[in-house]
Write a structure and sequence with these properties.
The protein contains ten helices and 23 strands. The chain is globular and about 70 Å long. With 421 residues, it is an alpha/beta fold. Residues 81-83, 125-127, 156-158, 181-182 line the site of glutamic acid.
């Protein structure tokens, strides 16, 4: 069997059809029509038919990128993930190394929107992201901002909201920085890659927004994309295209792009929150302390585990229950950690709503032990912020002040406690 052959096989009584990708450690790897790869044990598979190669989605035309001085310049910082990745039409595998040629060939409508300035920052799925790569992204985006009207960051969706949070703190920007990704890879008919990329390039090149944002589908069907604030957004569903939701606030803008036959037929931008058009200077503040943890408390968490996580880090963000609680028995360990110079911040695992240190006695004691209740900051945002804050100071008072100062919209006002899914 050659890579790319169309294969039908029987396995455990089921008939499977797909494109043969490779044989690996006794497994036949097939790409199914829904885009997923499956591995089937070779000795359990009965091959029923093998046909010629599949050429799904192979471009019929060759498009060249334009250098049109009338169009805005948009930087593309690629970090990996499935969006903006190039499909290998023989194996159906996806690689995230790309050139502007590849991009324009996959999404030819880009030529109508912008002159693209590419930069490959990394080439990883976002579950493999580490804070030092957040810093590389911040540096790459900073360089691109000097020579463009705005920047799009293509990123895997799993941890995109951690990266948008870090960049929101590490960069002050007079132009839009728009993260985007795809829940379905661009070789699948149902892919959201094209719309997300085109919408983000449109926002980066033309909108008055200033700051770090994330733009993905607003609903499960194609149409409007929501533009979320980088510090108040979260992946809320494993597979839906509208997986990203603004939490505790509304999106800052919406964008609509419709493309047909390689041409853009409609584009529209709606600003919902003018706050994010305020002027900012361009500045890189890429502080970083990688010895920070995010810890979800669970009923029955062992003292040894809690103690180890606290004492082995310079700072820990705890996702507590409800208003931000942990079991009373653990509270002396918070005091021990704080006394030895560890920053302990409290967020809530309810995701929606504000932490509170005065409603229940547990929280009162936690605060007395030195824990800092981080208002309604999202746990992932608080974690990224602590990485940034402890990169600039180890002084606990200064760290407390910085964590409780609203730097990039991460803390919402007390009024308007709304929630929607
Ligand atoms: N786990 C992958 C990632 O987050 C999913 C693919 C994607 O979202 O691009 O990178």
């Amino acid at each position: 069997m050659e890579p790319g052959s169309k294969v039908t096989l029987r396995w455990r009584g089921k008939i499977l059809r797909g494109v043969f990708v490779k044989e690996d450690k006794g497994f036949i790897v097939l790409k199914l029509s829904n885009g997923y790869n499956v591995g089937i044990p070779k000795d359990e598979a009965e091959i029923l038919s093998v046909e010629g190669r599949e050429h799904i989605g192979k471009p019929r035309f060759h498009y060249r990128p334009v250098q049109n001085p009338d169009l805005p310049k948009v930087g593309i910082a690629a970090t990996g993930g499935t969006i903006a990745a190039r499909v290998d039409y023989v194996t159906g595998a996806v690689t995230a190394e790309f050139t502007v040629e590849d991009l324009v060939n996959t999404f030819p409508e880009l030529n109508e929107l912008a002159t693209l300035v590419p930069r490959q920052v990394s080439n990883i799925f976002s579950e493999n992201m580490v804070p030092s790569i957040w810093r590389e992204i911040a540096r790459g985006v900073y360089e691109l901002l000097k020579e463009s009207d705005g920047v799009v960051v293509t990123h895997g969706t799993d941890t995109m909201h951690y990266s948008t949070a870090y960049l929101s703190f590490a960069l002050s920007t007079p132009k839009p920085v728009v993260f985007t990704g795809a829940q379905r890879s661009s070789d699948r008919p149902s892919s959201d890659a094209a719309l997300n990329l085109l919408s983000s390039v449109y926002v980066a090149g033309y909108s008055p927004l200033k700051g770090v944002f994330l733009s993905m589908h607003e609903s499960s069907s194609d149409g409007w994309n929501a533009v979320h604030l980088g510090t108040r957004v979260r992946k809320m569903h494993t597979s839906r295209r509208d997986t990203f939701r603004s939490i505790g606030r509304d999106p800052v803008a919406r964008v609509y792009i419709e493309a047909r036959g390689g041409r853009i037929v409609r584009k529209e931008f709606q600003l919902l929150d003018p706050e994010w058009t305020r002027e900012h200077p361009l500045e890189l503040r890429d502080h970083l302390n990688e010895n920070v943890a995010l810890l979800k408390y669970f009923p029955g968490m062992k003292k040894e585990l809690f103690e180890r996580v606290l004492l082995e880090h310079d700072g820990v963000v705890i996702e507590g229950t409800g208003f931000g609680h942990v079991r009373e028995e653990l509270i002396p360990l918070i005091k021990e950690a704080v006394d030895s110079g560890v920053f302990v911040g409290i967020t809530s695992q309810t995701i929606y709503g504000r932490t509170h240190s005065h409603v229940y006695s547990t929280a009162v004691k936690m605060e007395e032990a030195g824990a800092v209740f981080l208002e309604d900051m999202l746990p992932e945002t608080a974690f990224a912020k602590l990485v940034w804050v402890l990169g600039q100071t180890k002084d606990l008072e200064r760290a407390r002040d910085l964590m409780l100062t609203n730097v990039a919209g991460e803390i919402t006002e007390r009024s308007g406690i709304e929630w929607k899914l």
